[in-house]
């Protein structure tokens, strides 16, 4: 006699319960429904990101037009602080990047000032160069906040110091070489005008609002409104960007590969090109380093690559301003900066890397050394601004 619950009786449905096939069908239907929901969420997320991207681009164009129209209002301000000439504008761009924690908005402002006839081409070049020197400050700032409020190690401070030292040592030499290139006309043939279709679109869509604002606001207020719109555009763009810290990127699988300096250079190049923000891509160094994905010796080549591809959005700004010479200015900055960085990467990387890391270690090993470093990086741009 078979025991209870065995044989055919085990397969028989119990009263009030679905049979095995029904349960399996219910599970399959539930899995299919969950898959549909995930698919719809993915589509919804993609549509939302596309919407943010379009809105950010519209704000960006509107902001550039406002800045261009109101650029003349900044001339009395520059005159008031005696900000004219290469050194003054270098300090202006440097300090401006500190103030907004980003280089791209200040670089776009410098192009607007040039397109509006407020500053010359070499002054615009110097101001843009200054933004490279100050853009890495956000890494040090975030590292400092982590150190003070979350009681973590000083690794974040160390990364910020390395990023700033790398920017200082690579982009300061770009200034004299780039000025020589501009004055000698090395890249004068590299000019790109805004396509007629884009110009017509901007005229039709944005000019009425820009002209209305210009008729009702002083030039300086118009310029200030443009700065606010520009910062808003970058904020909206951030909503359209992927979260590069998510495990879905599977950084763990390429951890050994990315320890190579060339790989780190390419990684910095690629992430900044994707995000259009060197501030965002450089700030990622802190969580990635604290989680062990990036070692200290990979910071320098990453910063090198990031500071080259960050010019993508500035090139777009030059195109939207419909100023071929502005495009030449940005291209010169990008070409000379890439040449200097690659020269160091290929021929001088080991001694250069040792020097940067030794200096960063010395700066961060004591409060006195760190305080002196902070004082120097703030005093120098102010001295250049008022010299």
Task: Report how far apart the termini are.
Answer: 105 Å
Structural class label: mainly alpha
Overall mean pLDDT stands at 77
Strand content of the residues, in percent?
under 5%
Describe the protein.
The protein is 76% helix and 0% strand. The chain has 387 residues and is mainly α. It has one domain. Helix 4 packs across helix 20, helix 5 packs antiparallel against helix 6 and helix 5 runs parallel beside helix 17. The N and C termini lie far apart (105 Å).
Strand-helix topology:
Blueprint: H1 8-11, H2 20-70, H3 75-80, H4 86-100, H5 104-115, H6 121-135, H7 137-149, H8 155-171, H9 174-184, H10 196-205, H11 207-216, H12 219-239, H13 261-275, H14 278-283, H15 285-290, H16 299-309, H17 311-320, H18 324-347, H19 349-364, H20 367-386
Helix pairs in contact: 2-5, 2-11, 2-12, 4-5, 4-6, 4-20, 5-6, 5-17, 6-8, 6-9, 6-18, 7-8, 8-16, 8-19, 9-18, 13-16, 16-18, 17-18
